């Protein structure tokens, strides 16, 4: 009977295990299995947020809550639901991180570890019984101190994915001599790629990619005296190969990209 339904290529979450066992034992029909899978695909919170709770099984990265513009209770509720399903969950770009820090104390979270990064404006909730599997190392560099919040967002994203982060902040081209000890330390730590966060003219990622033999991910920031798009254009127009670029202030996107590189290398190393 099980052969009638093709599960090949479909990565199930642990919450579907009982459903499959019930089907195997003849307790439910094939039609009910299909219906429950469709219903399980999204979780709805108060008719306003739909959560893709099985995203990590398709893409290797759990859904992350984008906090900008959302109410604090919506953010906490969404992150709790995702943590319940996946063991760990992250929210980014939270507008009022101070208010969230106060409000979250009202919740019964004794079974969870809570991490609030006020500089990055992120929230991580992790089930105390959930273990993050370590999958490699990534370097994160900033040109200036004003770029640190975006770098911290990338760092929090990487840590949720199980990546160890080697950081070095404020090593921009205004004092280029500061860069070389940083790169030496990252090479010694065998990072698989380097995220470089820079505003102003955005030249640092191009310099880094000209000095190392691993992928570099450039993150332009909105830190600038002039036109905010300048660092993005500089990075996109680089003549130095090996540099990929995400959008302005997208530390999360850079973290995911670097984390997937680390994940692929790790998986190949254990085969």
TrEMBL record:
GO terms for molecular function: hydrolase activity. It comes from the Archaea. One of its GO terms (biological process) is 'de novo' IMP biosynthetic process. Residues 136-267 form the PurE domain. SMART domains: AIRC (SM01001). This is Circadian phase modifier. It comes from Methanocaldococcus lauensis.
């Amino acid at each position: 009977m099980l052969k009638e339904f093709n599960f090949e290529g479909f990565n199930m979450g642990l919450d579907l295990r009982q459903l499959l066992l019930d089907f195997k034992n003849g307790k439910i029909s094939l039609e009910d299995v299909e219906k429950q899978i469709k219903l399980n695909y999204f979780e709805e919170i108060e008719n306003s947020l739909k959560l893709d709770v099985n995203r990590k099984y398709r893409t290797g990265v759990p859904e992350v809550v984008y906090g900008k513009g959302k109410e604090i209770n919506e953010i906490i509720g969404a992150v709790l639901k995702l943590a319940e399903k996946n063991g760990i969950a992250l929210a980014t770009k939270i507008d009022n991180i101070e208010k969230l820090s106060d409000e979250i104390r009202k919740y019964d979270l004794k079974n969870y570890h809570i991490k609030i990064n006020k500089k990055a404006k992120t929230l991580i909730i992790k089930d105390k019984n959930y273990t993050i599997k370590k999958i490699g190392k990534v370097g994160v560099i900033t040109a200036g101190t004003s770029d640190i919040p975006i770098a911290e967002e990338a760092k929090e994203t990487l840590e949720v994915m199980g990546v160890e982060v080697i950081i070095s902040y404020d090593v921009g081209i205004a004092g280029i001599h500061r860069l070389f000890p940083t790169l030496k330390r990252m090479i010694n730590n065998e990072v698989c790629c380097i995220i470089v966060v820079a505003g102003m003219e955005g030249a640092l990622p191009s310099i880094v990619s000209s000095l190392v033999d691993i992928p570099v991910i450039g993150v332009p920031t909105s830190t600038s005296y002039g036109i905010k798009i300048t660092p993005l254009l500089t990075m996109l127009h680089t003549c130095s190969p090996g540099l990929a670029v995400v959008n302005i202030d997208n530390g999360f996107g850079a973290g995911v990209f670097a984390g997937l590189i680390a994940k692929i290398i790790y998986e190949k190393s254990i085969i």
